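for the writeup, i need someone to sanity check this before i put it in the appendix. the sequnce is what the collaborator sent (i think, or maybe the updated version? ugh). structure was predicted straight from it, no edits. if anything looks off just tell me and ill rerun, i have time this weekend
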Amino acid sequence: MFMPKWMDEEIQDAADGKSSADSTLPPELVAQAAKALKEIGKVSKEEKKRRRVEDREEVEREVEKAMKHWVDFFRNNPKYKEVGRVVGRKPLPEDRKDPGLCEEALKKRPVRGGNFEKVMVAAMGMGVGLRGAAGGAGDALEKAPDFVKAGVV
């Protein structure tokens, strides 16, 4: 749930007919994806690879922080007592089917604009990115579609 989705990659996938079930791109905009792709440009394989490395590092930090919260919660709460430890756990089978994320976790995934953010900034006359709400950008952001506002971190 911590792995971000990239709006420009979703637009590219939609334009290529590969839109996923957990896409944040509203169905009514999928038809416009090919046109939008001309504006934002395709995301290169190298850029995707770079993003995944950075995303993975961020995800690992967020998972560690979340796990620490729960470990500390149970360890420091007198209501819960330690009754044992897991030892000698067998590795999971390689062919195990991944159940995927639940709907709530999918909703919590962060959305990044990527190249799409640059186009939105230019189209709205904003002097800064969607994440930096300085210099009147907040007013322009209020006019943005809901799916864009949802991606603002």
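DSSP finds eight helices and two strands in the chain. Strands lie at 5-6, 111-112.
thx in advance!!
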